[in-house]
Write a structure and sequence with these properties.
Length: 389
């Protein structure tokens, strides 16, 4: 099953059209000068426990919602624009763990394949990011297991023009209006909105191409978006709009799906266990560092995108806004057990119980009796890692 484009692919072309700017061409591979790094202590050495290169498959292009992973990327990294990947030393607290980290772009870079399908096509992938419902949809044929999560809640939202629809205060008002809800093809949450009675089936319009052009021309409908991107982009970077949008997060109407879960293939869990025991706490600590101060990660993400002309522009201002939206919006934080990057298994089971029937009705092979323990594990989490706020 293919996943649709989720966000900014249309903004690059529109930015050129509206502002007259053009991106400069870049070499196929761009590298920073090699940097001699202090080795990490023995307990954080990954050589021998992990693959020589830990490969991470993103859902989309590099953005700060996968920021903690870029916090593990050490100096001297290489940007390979031809293959849409970034490679450098994997560091813990800035110290070399003895292995490399390779971060690969998703979305158009992998033909809009889902991350689970890409992980099964390419066995070199160590970790892949996913949403809960995509893991449920893949459970029958391409099962994955989440070992931690970068986000406690999803930034997915529906947005609208408050001037055109002044009576809309939230998603329920959109449903009552009967107006279209424009999303990209293959999204799974619109059927959930219908099943919940929040919108009607006939309102769903799966023709969104990720360009803002249609909304700018006729803002009478609701459109998908992410709270860490579109509110800033439409107000400050889409020059033909250049004003605020109204929006509500799906989580505020009962959507409980985890976003940016960090997964391994289920059939590789045993093989990767020695690696995960060391690596997962590093991801937790990188998440804590990002929440405390996202500045370094913002700089890295902006830099790697700037070095790849295939990717849509990602400004420093958007990076700062996106990080703060995640942090200040409470989308990063401890779970109900008080542990950062953890899972609430009761919540995961509710997600399965809600999305399972919806996905089966759509033709997905969701196993009968699928449980939270099939989708997530807390085995590798360090329960001492938590954040305040």
């Amino acid at each position: 099953m293919k996943t649709p484009p989720l966000r900014r692919i249309g903004f690059a072309a529109l930015a050129v059209l509206l502002t007259g700017t053009a991106s400069a061409c870049a070499d196929d591979t761009t590298a920073a000068p090699a940097v001699a790094l202090e080795p990490a202590p023995a307990e954080q050495q990954l050589a021998g426990a992990c693959p020589a290169t830990v490969v991470v498959q993103l859902q989309w292009a590099p953005e700060t919602d996968s920021g903690p992973l870029f916090g593990l990327l050490g100096p001297g990294y290489t940007v390979d624009a031809d293959n849409n990947k970034i490679t450098g030393p994997l560091v813990a607290d800035g110290k070399d763990t003895g292995v490399r980290l390779e971060i690969r772009a998703g979305g158009p870079a992998i033909g809009f394949q889902t991350v689970p399908s890409q992980m099964y096509v390419d066995p070199s992938i160590t970790l892949g990011l996913a949403h809960s419902e995509h893991a449920i949809a893949a459970a029958g044929q391409q099962p994955i297991v989440a070992v931690t999560t970068l986000l406690r809640n999803s930034p997915q939202m529906l947005m609208w023009d408050p001037k055109t629809n002044p009576d809309w205060q939230g998603i329920a008002d959109i449903g009552k209006s009967g107006k279209p809800v424009v999303v990209s093809k293959g999204q799974l949450y619109p059927d959930w909105l219908v099943a919940r009675g929040l919108v009607r089936k006939e309102q769903i319009d799966a023709s969104y191409d990720n360009s803002p052009s249609r909304f700018v021309t006729d803002p009478s409908f609701a459109q998908q978006g992410f709270a860490n991107a579109e509110p800033f982009t439409y107000e400050h970077e889409v020059r033909a709009w250049n004003k605020p949008v109204g929006y509500q997060l799906l989580k505020d109407v009962g959507y409980e799906g985890y976003a940016r879960t960090v997964n391994v293939r289920a059939d590789k869990l045993a093989e990767l266990r020695p690696c995960l025991r060391k690596l997962v706490p590093m991801i937790q600590r990188a998440t804590a560092s990002f929440k405390a101060d996202p500045g370094h990660v913002n700089d890295v993400v902006v830099d790697v995108v700037e070095q790849n002309p295939k990717l849509s522009p990602y400004s420093a201002e958007l990076a700062e806004f996106g990080s703060r939206a995640l942090i200040d919006g409470g989308l990063i934080g401890n779970d109900t057990d008080g542990v950062l990057g953890s899972f609430d298994e009761t919540r995961v089971q509710r997600i399965i119980d809600e999305f399972g029937p919806i996905l089966r009705a759509g033709g997905a092979n969701v196993p009968t009796g699928l449980t939270a323990k099939d989708l997530v594990t807390k085995e590798f989490l360090d329960p001492a890692i938590s954040v305040t706020g």
